[in-house]
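User: Just a sanity check before I run the rest of the batch. Below are the structure tokens for the first item. I only need the designed sequence back.
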């Protein structure tokens, strides 16, 4: 019995149709940026606060220059509180991080994956790959895969796994493959084993530090109330005590970014000549992943256009 075989041109035509449809696809809730030649940055964090802590200042600086930044929380944060959990907490955290994004001048997405249950599955790899492709990213950011939190680690693994797959045509063929591989970068951390964080880029965020602190300040559930390890005494009903706690949170985050500037001062000197590095008070730092594009100094200056 003879069977007709599909002609290769038919298969190609189907793929072209899929690609054409997907080019017009949207990321739900996100205004897709125009093709205006500006940079496109997508940052992945395990929870609705991680990107904001690690790259909120640099994101605000990109946004001020008209570049397009998308923060993605890979889980919904639904167990990240000492008193609340489940859907109500997930909704609360989504609302808080949405306010933070408005302050930073960027956009954000919260994926519906349970907090504490992220795994580096094939489906999650596909999800990150599709998001990177849809955003047509120049830069992709995420955690290093030796972070303390399993959700952080697996976010880093998934980002790494996407670093090659974004260019492979028949992986997630419903979304066009990227013709250029983005630069993949890690956030700063303090973990030493199996290897310590080594920054390739350190950015002064002094011009937007108040903006970043304002953004972190609206995430009351995580910082003022202490998140999963907090307690009722941290943020009592008394308005004066609440104000004092908010100031304490603000000062803690300011010191955190001061520490990054001090720790990586020698790298700062490579980007801020003369005595400019010594005047940097707050900084964020990033390491280039060995996967993806490998930028030289000139390309890093193009991707981080803050040194003129």
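Assistant: Here's the designed sequence for the first item:
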């Amino acid at each position: 019995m003879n069977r007709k075989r599909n002609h290769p041109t038919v298969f190609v035509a189907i793929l072209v149709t899929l690609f054409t449809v997907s080019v017009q696809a949207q990321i739900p809730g996100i205004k897709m940026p125009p093709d205006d030649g500006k940079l496109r940055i997508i940052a992945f964090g395990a929870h609705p606060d991680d990107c904001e802590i690690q790259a909120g200042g640099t994101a605000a600086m990109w946004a001020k220059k008209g570049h397009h930044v998308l923060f993605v929380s890979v889980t919904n944060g639904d167990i990240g509180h000492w008193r609340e959990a489940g859907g109500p907490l997930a909704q609360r955290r989504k609302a808080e991080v949405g306010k933070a994004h408005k302050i930073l001048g960027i956009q954000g997405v919260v994926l519906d994956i349970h907090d504490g249950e992220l795994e580096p599955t094939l489906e999650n790899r596909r999800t990150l790959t599709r998001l990177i492709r849809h955003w047509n990213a120049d830069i992709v950011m995420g955690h290093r895969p030796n972070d303390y939190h399993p959700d952080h680690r697996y976010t880093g693994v998934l980002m790494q796994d996407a670093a090659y797959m974004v260019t492979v045509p028949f992986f997630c063929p419903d979304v066009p493959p990227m013709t250029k591989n983005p630069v993949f970068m890690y956030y700063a951390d303090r973990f030493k084993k199996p290897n310590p964080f080594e920054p390739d880029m350190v950015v002064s965020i002094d011009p937007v530090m108040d903006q970043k602190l304002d953004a972190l300040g609206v995430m009351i559930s995580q910082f003022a109330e202490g998140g999963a390890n907090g307690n009722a005494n941290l943020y009592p009903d008394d308005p004066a005590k609440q104000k004092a706690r908010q100031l304490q949170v603000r000062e803690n985050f300011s010191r955190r970014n001061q520490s990054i500037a001090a720790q990586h001062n020698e790298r700062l000197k490579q980007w801020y000549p003369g005595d400019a590095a010594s005047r940097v008070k707050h900084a964020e730092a990033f390491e280039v992943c060995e996967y993806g594009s490998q930028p030289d100094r000139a390309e890093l200056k193009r991707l981080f256009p803050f040194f003129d």
